[in-house]
Amino acid sequence: MHPPPPAAAMDFSQNCLFGYMEDLQELTIIERPVRRSLKTPEEIERLTVDEDLSDIERAVYLLSAGQDIQGTSVIANLPFLMRQNPTETLRRVLPKVREALHVAGVEMQLTAAVSFLTILQDESVSIHAYTHSFLQVILLHLEHRDTGVSNAWLETLLSVIEVLPKETLRHEILNPLVSKAQLSQTVQSRLVSCKILGKLTNKFDAHTIKREILPLVKSLCQDVEYEVRSCMCRQLENIAQGIGTELTKSVVLPELIELSRDEGSSVRLAAFETLVNLLDTFDTDDRSQTILPLVKSFCEKSFKADESILISLSFHLGKLCHGLYGIFTPDQHLRFLEFYKKLCTLGLQQENGHSENQIPPQILEQEKKYISVRKNCAYNFPAMIVFVDPKNFHLELYSTFFCLCHDPEVPVRYTIAICFYEVSKLLNSGVYLIHKELITLLQDESLEVLDALIDHLPEILELMSTGGESSVQENKLSSLPDLIPALTAAEQRAAASLKWRTHEKLLQKYACLPHVISSDQIYYRFLQRMFTIMMTNNVLPVQKAASRTLCIFLRYNRKQEQRHEVIQKLIEQLGQGKSYWNRLRFLDTCEFIIEIFSKSFFCKYFFLPAIELTRDPVANVRMKLCYLLPKVKSTLKIPADKHLLQQLEMCVRKLLCQEKDKDVLAIVKRTVLELDRMEMSMDSFQKKFYEKDLLDQEKEREELLLLEMEQLEKEKQQNDGRPTTDKMFEKKRRDTKTPTQSLPKNIPISVPGPPSVTPSTSKEIKKSKLIRSQSFNNQAFHAKYGNLEKCASKSSTTGYTASVSGLGKTSLLSLTDDSFRTRNASSVPPSFSPNTTLPSTSRGTGNSLDPKSSGSKDTQPRKATLKSRKSNP
């Protein structure tokens, strides 16, 4: 067809009009087959069936008088009929199915094979009934002229063999097999016999196998057709498992040795692969005296005359190394290693003077084989590290690893990226040797390689950061300055592509970064990027992944100023954003915060901004909030959060009374019922909520610990270089332990546990606290413990108390939020001064106090009882 010209250049000349008419004629020709394919009234009449017929009657009618497509539909529905009415189906429908299969086409035959197998798996009838009704039909069609149909029936028969009793197998299958395996039968019949023999071996005892099955096996191994010899050779592995080690050594091994010298390359390949799979079956003498020479012969011939075995040889190298380990002489070990290195670079040294379009087909086919070989070598690289010992990696295999990571073909780099985690684990403390290769793969131009690498990126980075030693606290990624630029470039490359699933996965994996790099690096290099993705990306799963990762970054951020800034941005740019899409993402973020943080954190910062969206002008936002309200209510504890509960109820009542959108109103009514059925958590532990309360308390403890650590680190920086550091630190800790009314307002009070376990000296206290500070980011991530940040509110000065009840002991953790604010006011930017207005709700008190009153009674820690928390007057 001629493309129509642009509207601006329309030409109404006679020639142009004739061109348009030709185009219309072509369209008419294209449409004709569609019209012809429509059914005529007579055809529709023939395809119509009386609706009053039962399922059985309809099936019998369609199999008797219907068309092929209708008969195929009945056979596909046969498992359902067997479940519904097995007796009538076997009596009336199955005979019609047998008749139809005699003249059936390929599609009906394939459908019948699948249906018969489904009936067996569903156990709709007993094994005896199945054998009587279905087995003969299966055996009858095993030698169908169509190879696909024959294979389908064979797969069904092999599954049936698994459940048939021995006597039935002997009479119905094994005895007829003797004649089916003779040379006088067709090749297809002998191929089927090979596969059946491999399956039957596990069903009979060794004596029966030796007397009745092994003679047939030997005969088929010597068959005149190479396809039959190859097929029987591949079944020798199953036969060896059934006859035991002794018979395998005396019967199977000689056959394999002879087949490995066969004139047919496919037979030699089958013999080689079977030998590799049976390595564990043979003893050391057989492996060293018989199999090792065969393997050496295969390796030598693969380069000289038989390239067809190269791909298989490279794929099974790992098994060979494992199976023959310990019997190599040093010289053989070195030669085998050199052979592997040669395979890893196979095809890279060849240069041809042809362009891509001029490469001869045989050269192109050879290059594809070489790519497959190098890909298999990459797959087996972890096994080769074990073969040479990880201690010798740098000397023996590093250059090969470098070549595989820089291979010009994507499949090779993709495979080595998949294996990168295994390589890292094997190298352990030597993992630093492959830092540069990690950067290379992160910067790979192919997103497939990146996608393969990031599957285990958290584990790889953890190994890199600890140097493979779980007890090492020092982060070793500081010696890898290119890591962060590589991670950010990888994310930008994924964002610029159309493969949003890779982008989503990468953002999810970035949640591990607090575990491996510093809080400041995350804040300055990654956190703002998460905001940008949430605000600008068009793919919802990607936005949600960025939102959740941002919440985890916030959870493990170690600076109060930065946490405040992030919270403020979330509320102002998302929760109060102009775009309703941003406000929807704010609700998603609230859901993640409820999951990751403690209940108190959500109530302090996000409870009021969230329920304010009940007045949102967009119905979709109000609807999404309604779905979230039960989770919002679950964060409240009574009686401490009674005032928040009242505000929630007021917002819900307004929605019920004022909502005009019928869809939102329907959801509001359902949500109200759900909220009414919810049981509220109490300040004290309850038996039914014990596990959830304990988990939430652990989150609160970690959030308070972050504040403690920040203060301790600041004190450490201030005290560095002073001779009286220990004395001052001891004095501060002593003051902190005594919660009196005359405490200075800038001294945080923290009681981490019972006095009996408190360190006795200031040096021990300082050391233990700083160790906790340094190791906090190295704690293992867990979905349940992904919660952070119990920090100061905009003007709430209430001391927060966390209580633990267990085995009759209660420990208090109390912290005055404003003590941090007033202590560090001089170093806080203007936007985060003590007067910064962050939305906040304070448990235990409903009024806001001036920061200057932070030394009053209201700011002193209050004991937490198992009944309730009350605010002091």
UniProtKB/TrEMBL annotation:
Q: HEAT repeat positions in this chain?
A: 213-250, 252-290
Disordered as annotated region, ranges? 712-766, 822-873
Q: GO cellular component terms?
A: cytosol; protein serine/threonine phosphatase complex
Q: Where is the composition biased (Polar residues)?
A: 822-858
**Keywords tagged on the record:** Coiled coil, Cytoplasm, Phosphoprotein, Repeat
Q: What is its main location?
A: cytoplasm
**One GO MF term:** protein phosphatase regulator activity
Q: From start to end residue, where is composition biased (Basic and acidic residues)?
A: 712-737
Here the segments flagged for biased composition (Basic residues) are: 864-873
Would you say which domain of life the source belongs to?
A: Eukaryota
Q: Where in the cell is the protein located?
A: Cytoplasm
Report the function annotation for this chain.
Putative regulatory subunit of serine/threonine-protein phosphatase 4.
Query: Subunit composition?
Result: Serine/threonine-protein phosphatase 4 (PP4) occurs in different assemblies of the catalytic and one or more regulatory subunits. Component of the PP4 complex PPP4C-PPP4R4.
List the protein's name.
Serine/threonine-protein phosphatase 4 regulatory subunit 4
Q: Which organism is it from?
A: Callithrix jacchus
